């Protein structure tokens, strides 16, 4: 259950605390509030049995952590991955607090995870695991307390099982307990594409600022899940050239450009992008260093460090993933004039449309996709400009600026409410 971290692959919770420290220094935050923000408010570890298809019993361990509740109910996804650890979920929950604050939606931050390789489970086993995990964390979750959503290796079907399990316990349907649900049970139009669309809006603003023509830009995307594949598709619809993409099996590169829709259907058929005809095979590490204008890490944490950051060729890095860049890499990118659009801004479109979904469920009144995208665009563009202004004011990178904005908002809310009792 304990994960070993090295100099190259740093402990994400240590990174998250360091990022907070940097912003707290800029804000001149008093030590009491600093201590409050450094600690997750609630941490639940659960170990639970699942009966496998062959009749045997396996025990899985999972977590649900609420980092901060000062600005509203806790919000954040649930991931299924063999590398999930307590410190990873702590970091991810803290990042959710800042993300909700950057885009100014009324939520605190949370995250959940189960240590499991879901690719090794049958659909029935996954359903049972999800329903039992939901039951175990129902101590914490609820439409007014803590609202999960999809993350790495979970999707709208997972959310449907969570919603159904929670509703069965209550005896009536509680759609607002999770977001990212299928449309026919209270999901929101546009939620599935929202993380990618938000990232696209931020990239459009950044390229404008840098005087780059997005339609003439080349793009590399690491990760081909809900964030990566869809952002590749949306940017190719903006006429950008997608030259490299990857998934957990490896990457593919074609300097002339990849047909993203064809890669998507290839992956649908073969389970990976590797082997896509007409493209060179590259490793996930080499992919990050390919010549391109825009690099989009859309997979896991700890991809860019002080070493490989020196070899990155992109002018803009847009973090569709959470925590792909460590603080050493941030320093290198700042010195090299490479603009990093930080996760808590660049991928906040997902949780923003989760907020819209939650509001629609609570009101039982649903919006069109055009309304959703329009409101999403307004929030993303406003947040980009808020962060940019602070970056210029303090002469810092966009991550530090986003943290100054977010940590400042959460600290203010904490002070306004006062310390109980
Ligand atoms: N898992 C997504 C994230 O990391 C979405 C969270 C949500 O919608 O609550 O932002």
From TrEMBL:
- In Swiss-Prot or TrEMBL terms, this protein is called Glutamate dehydrogenase
Question: What are the protein's UniProt keywords?
Answer: NAD, Nucleotide-binding, Oxidoreductase
Q: Which Gene Ontology molecular function entries are recorded, alphabetically?
A: glutamate dehydrogenase (NAD+) activity; nucleotide binding
Question: Site described as Important for catalysis, positions?
Answer: 151
For this chain's UniProt record, which GO biological process terms are given?
Answer: L-glutamate catabolic process
Active site, renumbered: 111 (proton donor)
Q: Where does NAD(+) bind?
A: 195, 226
Q: Where along the chain is substrate bound? A: 75, 99, 354
Q: Which organism is it from?
A: Candidatus Chlorohelix allophototropha
């Amino acid at each position: 259950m304990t994960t070993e971290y090295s100099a190259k692959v740093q402990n994400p919770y240590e990174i998250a605390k360091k990022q907070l420290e940097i912003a707290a220094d800029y804000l001149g935050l008093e030590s009491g509030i600093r201590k409050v923000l450094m600690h997750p408010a609630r941490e639940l570890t659960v170990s639970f049995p699942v009966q496998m298809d062959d009749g045997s019993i396996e025990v899985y361990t999972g977590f649900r952590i609420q980092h901060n509740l000062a600005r509203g109910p806790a919000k954040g996804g649930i991931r299924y991955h063999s590398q999930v650890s307590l410190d990873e979920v702590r970091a991810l929950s803290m990042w959710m607090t800042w993300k909700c604050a950057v885009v100014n939606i009324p939520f605190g931050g949370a995250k959940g995870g189960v240590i499991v390789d879901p690719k090794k489970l049958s659909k029935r086993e996954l359903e049972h695991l999800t329903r039992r995990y939901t039951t175990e964390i129902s101590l914490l979750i609820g439409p007014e307390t803590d609202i999960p959503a999809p993350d790495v290796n979970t999707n709208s079907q997972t959310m449907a099982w969570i919603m159904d399990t929670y509703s069965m316990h209550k005896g009536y349907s509680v759609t607002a307990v999770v977001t990212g649900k299928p449309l026919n049970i209270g999901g929101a139009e546009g939620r599935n594409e929202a993380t990618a669309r938000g990232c696209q809006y931020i990239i459009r603003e950044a390229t404008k600022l840098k005087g780059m023509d997005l339609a003439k830009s080349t793009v590399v995307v690491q990760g081909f899940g809900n964030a990566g594949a869809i952002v590749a598709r949306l940017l190719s619809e903006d006429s950008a050239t997608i030259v490299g993409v990857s998934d957990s099996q490896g990457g593919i590169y074609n300097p002339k450009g990849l047909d993203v829709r064809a890669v998507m259907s290839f992956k649908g058929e073969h389970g990976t992008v590797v082997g896509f005809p007409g493209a060179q095979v590259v490793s996930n590490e080499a992919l990050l260093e390919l010549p391109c204008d825009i690099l989009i890490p859309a997979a896991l944490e700890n991809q860019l460090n002080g070493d490989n950051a020196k070899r990155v060729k992109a002018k803009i890095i847009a973090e569709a993933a959470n925590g792909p860049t460590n603080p050493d890499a941030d320093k290198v990118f700042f010195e090299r004039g490479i603009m990093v659009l930080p996760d808590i801004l660049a991928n906040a479109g997902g949780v923003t449309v989760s907020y819209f979904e939650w509001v629609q469920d609570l009101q039982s009144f649903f919006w069109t996709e055009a309304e959703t995208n329009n409101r999403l665009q307004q929030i993303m563009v406003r947040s980009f400009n808020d962060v940019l202004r602070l970056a210029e004011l303090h002469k810092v990178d966009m991550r530090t600026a986003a943290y100054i904005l977010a940590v400042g908002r959460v600290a203010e809310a904490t002070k306004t409410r006062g310390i109980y009792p």
